[in-house]
């Protein structure tokens, strides 16, 4: 037995997914896939993520779409084309040999009951003999009104639940269930990808929007995202207090750390200084807007006068005629006084 075990190849090591970095090419591919097949419907697009992983850090650098259909009435019925998936993987290996399957994406925008089954199917295509990292599930939200990061990543975890089979039997039965756990997701790009994204955004940029408007819009989007996170924390704590969810010590400890890091905003000096600074800034903005409006009106009047003078019989000639009439009236009045 000892000799046989020594000749067996070593099993590949396994690492847990720590974070997921999604590259711009994946976002563009997922958005294009959704607009080609699912736009205007309640369907969602599903595809495979390709990339690399190192010590739990996953880089999703590429992706391709997969034919996918699911029954809207029965959530257990869905179709995923295995032959198409195998053929596409074989062609990608010929072009990008270092990229392998690291998970799959969906346009969601939420987790559905079929996602665990899709995850188990996609995990079969991970090449054997490599350093295995958990395949991830990334929801790419393609809705245009989303102001935060459009990606949300998950990994599959196993939870052991004990249940009693019946009233007479006092022995609890342990049941292993799989569920999704959140993984931090990032948006990253290599130098060549950054150049391409800049060229794309150059055509989308609106030069009529001022820098102040962009700054205000960024502040509003940041505050709206903060509001969403606070509401999510509140809903979680409410569900835990009512017994609808199990308490997680790590989540509660993170919430406590966030609350402890908040500054004390009830100090009178801080409130007064913020009000004074805001009033000064708004006064400058108001005065500059008034000056800008007066200058624009002045330029408009000058342009109208110049145009009328060139066209003839305009405002300039009417002013001259009015001055001549006033001069004649004054001369007649002076003559009457002399008489």
Notes on the protein architecture:
The protein has 339 residues and is α/β, with parallel strands linked by helices. The chain folds into three domains: 9-164 and 171-205, Cytidine Deaminase, domain 2 (3-Layer(aba) Sandwich); 210-262, no CATH class; 268-327, no CATH class. The protein has helices at residues 2-7, 24-37, 82-95, 115-123, 191-204, 211-242, 249-261, 268-311, 315-338, and strands at 14-15, 19-22, 46-54, 57-65, 68-70, 78-80, 100-106, 132-133, 136-140, 151-163, 173-183, 185-187. The strands form three sheets. The chain has an eight-stranded mixed β-sheet with strand order 11-10-9-7-3-4-2-12. The protein has a two-stranded parallel sheet with strand order 1-8. The protein has a two-stranded antiparallel sheet with strand order 5-6. Strand 3 and strand 4 (57-65) form a beta hairpin. The longest helix has 44 residues, at 268-311.
Binned, the helix content reads: 40-55%
Strand arrangement within the widest β-sheet reads 11-10-9-7-3-4-2-12
> Over all CA atoms, what is the radius of gyration?
34 Å
By DSSP (H or I, 4+ residues per run), the number of helices equals 9
How are the SSEs ordered, and which strands pair?
Blueprint: H1 2-7, E1 14-15, E2 19-22, H2 24-37, E3 46-54, E4 57-65, E5 68-70, E6 78-80, H3 82-95, E7 100-106, H4 115-123, E8 132-133, E9 136-140, E10 151-163, E11 173-183, E12 185-187, H5 191-204, H6 211-242, H7 249-261, H8 268-311, H9 315-338
Parallel strand pairs: 1-8, 2-4, 2-12, 7-9
Antiparallel strand pairs: 3-4, 3-7, 5-6, 9-10, 10-11
